[in-house]
Amino acid sequence: MIKKEMKLVITFHTTTDAMAMEKACKETGADGRLIPVPRSISAGCGLAWCANLESEGALRKLMEEKGIVPQAVQECLV
Known about the structure:
Blueprint (H helix, E strand, L loop, with lengths): L5 E7 L2 H14 L4 E4 L10 E5 L4 H11 L3 E8 L1
Antiparallel strand pairs: 1-3, 1-4, 2-3
């Protein structure tokens, strides 16, 4: 069984926003990956961005620069 760790989980209102986040992160080499939204979280779409907790500041800045509006940014066991 894979051990769960505390991660930063960013949820989005739409799948389009989640895909925009993936594209922006790939272009800039930012930390993280798309995952299905964890069951412990409710979100507008079924995808979330998962990254290390230390990446929060950089990811918030990237979202602001790219005009990506998250639904929520939270810590979660993933």
